[in-house]
Structures are given as C-alpha cells and as structure tokens.
C-alpha cells in the first residue's frame, strides 16, 4: 500500500510539473483528488484492509493527499506569478512618453484681413454680399463696359468654361448683379475668389481674392469716395496713414483713380518696404460710369455712386509684412500660426 501511495504521489508530481496552464493543473487535481480520483479509489479499498492497519493507512492516504494539495497550490502560485509577469511585459505602459499635443487650427492671414475689412465697412453701414466664381462673360466684361474687342479684356482674358462662361477675373461683376436687382440705395462690399492666367511668383497667383465695394445713391460725389477710402485706410493701417489718389483708367468708372497709402513702415520717408517711394498702392476706384448704370437699369440722371476694388492678399501681405504671396497658399502651419 505504501508503494502504491508513493507511486500515486510521484505520478501526480510529474503531471503537475508538466502542467503549463491553470486548467491543466485543475485536471490533475480532479484526476488524483477528485471523487472518482485515484486517491479516493484507494480510500474505497480500505474495507479490504486489516482493521488494525486502517488508521495507519488512513493517515498515509491523508498525508499523500496533503502533499499533492501542497504541491498543486505551490505550482498554482508560481504559475500565476509567471503569467502575471509575462502580461506586464507585454502590456507595457511607458509613463515617460511625452503626451500627444492637441494641435489647434488657426485662422488664415487672408481670413483675418478679410474680417478686418468687413468689420470696417459693416461699421459704415455696408452689407456683405457674394457673387458666383463661375461667371457669365457678359457680367465679367460687357456689363462693366468692357466690350469684346476692348484692350482691357486682353490681360484678363483667361479661364473660359465655354465661350459665354468664364472663371471671374474680378469681383466687379457683383456690382452689375446687385444693381440689376433694382433695390436702391446700395452700400455693399463683395469679397471673393478671382482667377487669372498669371504665372506664380512672389506677387502673383492664378487664383487670388478681391473685395469689391459699391455705393449707389442720390448726390454721391467723388468727395464721398475720398472720405470713405481715407477712413478705410486709417482704420486698416493706423490713424497716421495718408492717402493719395492718382488718376487712372478703368472702363467701368469715370473718373477713375488708384489709391496709395503712406508707407506705414517708414511713415513716408522711403524704405525697402515701399521701394523708396514712401507710398504703397492698395486699390483701384472711381465713380460708376453712367453707361454701366444704364446697362443695369439705373437712371444716371437720378442716381450715381462710386466703386472700388481691393486685393485681399495684397492687404494681408502688407498688414503682416509677408514678402512672398506663395506663403499664403502653402498651408505650412509653422508659417500660419504666426498671425
Ligand atoms: N476690378 C479691378 C481690377 O481687378 C479693380 C477695380 C478698379 C474695381 C476700380 C473697382 C473700381 O470697383 O472702381 O483690377
């Protein structure tokens, strides 16, 4: 009997040794200690043992049971530790890793400049309107007094969809669209994208933005135009800013002018920024041509007004002292976040 028990113990120990997962360990427990297990079978065989030997044998069975149980428990604890350690290694959390920063977007310099211009004109009672970027040739040219054979059309004769439709070369067609609606008086600005087949360089892009302005009312004079643009320039570039109106020609205004502002960098003395002249050109403007008013259904005897067109990129470049227009379109966050 003693040998039998030793044998059971040795077998159990071997199988415990061979177990690599808790489930197998449990199988061993059932096999040797369970109700139908081998040790239980030995106990059941006690009836055949001489009664006087029974206590001794019983003790031996219990000892064997205890030993197997102890071995099972010890192995289980070891096994769990190994499993836990392996898991710790696999699921490493490196608390020293720098956290991922949340990179926030930022308004584009064009947007900041546009909002500034809108704020100034809305403050003077202007409405902000929009027109289509894909425009009829008729609105982009004809209704603005630029007939098919006009030389002014040449430099803007650009991206045609078909012979009647063009990617607008200026925001001026919005003037015609608003005047045609017939609601007078008009005080509006119309910002938006325009297109020309210009080569890309530091001051040109085939796609850029303009802000058109239009005022139509009774008794509007060139003095109103001058006063308005003077206020605009002072608001935008500072109260010291002076303006200068130079005669110019645009087909849809008469008279027409280009407006320069005194260089806000050197105050007019002349510097690299204003190329030594002390002045910086910022926009084109003029009194709306009577023929344009007529074409849009407005009686030039009764109503008149002025218009202007500003290049948005030009304002952004000047205001933020950016020396290359291409930077505005590259979307490099390191550049954009400076404004
Ligand atoms: N549309 C002109 C251009 O793109 C700019 C302009 C000049 C607009 C005079 C105007 C204006 O409204 O009166 O060059």
Outline of the structure:
With 339 residues, the protein is an alpha+beta fold.
Strand content: 15-25%
Which sheet architecture does the biggest sheet show? 7 strands, mixed
Mean pLDDT, nearest integer? 92
Q: Helical percent range?
A: 40-55%
Distance between the termini: 93 Å
- The string of secondary-structure elements, in order, is HHHHHEEHHEHEEHEEEHEHH
How large, in whole angstroms, is the Cα Rg?
A: 45 Å
Q: How many distinct helices?
A: 12
Order of the strands making up the biggest sheet: 1-4-5-9-8-7-6
- Report the bound ligands by name, code or SMILES: 3,4-dihydroxyphenylalanine
* Strand segment tally: 9
Alpha-beta content class:
alpha+beta
Poorly predicted residue ranges: none
Shape descriptor reads rod-shaped
What does this structure look like?
By secondary structure, this protein is of the alpha+beta class. It is built from 12 helices and 9 strands. Strands 1-4-5-9-8-7-6 form a 7-stranded mixed β-sheet, sandwiched between helices. The protein has a two-stranded antiparallel sheet with strand order 2-3. A hairpin with a 2-residue loop joins strand 6 and strand 7. Helix 1 packs antiparallel against helix 2 and helix 5 crosses helix 11. It is rod-shaped and about 140 Å long. The chain binds 3,4-dihydroxyphenylalanine. The site of 3,4-dihydroxyphenylalanine has 11 residues, from strand 8 and strand 9. 3,4-dihydroxyphenylalanine binds next to strand 8 and strand 9.
């Amino acid at each position: 009997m003693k040998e039998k028990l030793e044998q059971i113990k040795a077998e159990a120990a071997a199988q415990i040794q061979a177990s690599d997962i808790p489930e197998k360990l449990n199988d061993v427990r059932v096999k040797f200690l369970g109700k139908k297990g081998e040790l239980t079978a030995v106990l059941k065989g006690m009836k055949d043992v001489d009664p006087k030997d029974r206590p001794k044998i019983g003790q031996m069975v219990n000892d064997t049971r205890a030993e197997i149980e102890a071995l099972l428990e010890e192995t289980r604890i070891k096994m769990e530790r190994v499993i836990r350690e392996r898991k710790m290694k696999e699921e490493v959390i490196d608390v020293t890793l720098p956290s991922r920063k949340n990179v926030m977007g930022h308004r584009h310099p064009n947007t900041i400049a546009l909002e500034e211009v809108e704020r100034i004109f809305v403050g003077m009672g202007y409405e902000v309107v929009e027109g289509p970027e894909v425009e009829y040739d008729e609105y982009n040219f004809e209704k603005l007094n630029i007939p098919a054979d006009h030389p002014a059309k040449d430099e803007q004769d650009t991206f045609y969809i078909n012979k009647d439709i063009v990617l607008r070369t200026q925001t001026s067609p919005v003037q015609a669209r608003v005047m045609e609606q017939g609601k007078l008086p008009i005080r509006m600005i119309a910002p938006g994208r325009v297109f020309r087949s210009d080569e890309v360089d530091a001051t040109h892009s085939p796609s850029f933005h303009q802000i058109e302005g239009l005022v139509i009312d009774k008794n509007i004079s060139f003095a109103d135009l001058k006063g308005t643009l003077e206020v605009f320039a002072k608001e935008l570039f500072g109260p010291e800013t002076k303006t200068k109106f130079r005669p110019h020609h645009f087909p849809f205004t008469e008279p027409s002018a280009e407006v320069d502002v005194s260089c806000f960098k050197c105050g007019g003395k002349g510097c690299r920024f204003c190329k030594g002249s002390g002045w910086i050109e910022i926009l084109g403007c003029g009194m709306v041509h009577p023929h344009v008013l007529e074409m849009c259904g407005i009686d030039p005897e009764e109503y008149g007004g002025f218009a202007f067109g500003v290049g948005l990129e030009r304002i952004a470049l000047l205001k933020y002292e950016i020396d290359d227009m291409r930077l505005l379109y590259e979307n490099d966050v390191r550049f954009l976040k400076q404004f």
